[in-house]
Amino acid sequence: MSIEKAKQYLEEKGFGDRVIETSESSATVQEAAVALGVEPGRIAKTLSYITPNGPILILAEGTARVDNRKYKDTFHTKAKMIPYDQVEELIGHSPGGVCPFGINEGVTVYLDESLKNYDIVYPAAGNGQSAVRLMTGELMDITGAVSWIDVCKNKEVQS
């Protein structure tokens, strides 16, 4: 089971006590925000893409949208999300619970700069009814991400 892989990974990293299991669905950003009682931006959504070098995950703040030009400039290929029916096979978690914890060998993880808007974020923890509470500064080490990147659209400032 996917959540067990994620929990084991988090235990090994010393973060097992931060896993939150909800009675409500947390499969989408909106559902997770309601279930956890936080603003949607604090949900660290995990986006699954396929590249010529294999599958990648990008963690971004919940309301961020990927900018296709920035993505292409960063990865030198067009943004192509992994088809729904291939996510679990390629990543190790099914849609709604995709997270950077306990993933398949060879999946590269990146963190989008949009996450830096928050001190605490909540990525999924392996299924559609879980999350893990993390400080943004802990993300690089705990996820094994290779780098911070900037592939999301800049938000317009409200005046």
Describe this structure in words.
This protein has 159 residues and is of the alpha/beta class. The protein has a single domain (2-149), classed as YbaK/aminoacyl-tRNA synthetase-associated domain (YbaK protein). Helices cover 23% and strands 23% of the residues. It has helices at residues 2-12, 29-36, 68-75, 87-91, 139-143, and strands at 19-21, 43-51, 54-61, 108-112, 120-123, 130-132, 134-135, 147-149. The strands form two sheets. The chain has a six-stranded mixed sheet with strand order 7-5-2-3-4-8. The protein is globular. The chain starts with a helix and ends in a 10-residue tail after the last strand. The model has no long low-confidence stretch (mean pLDDT 94).
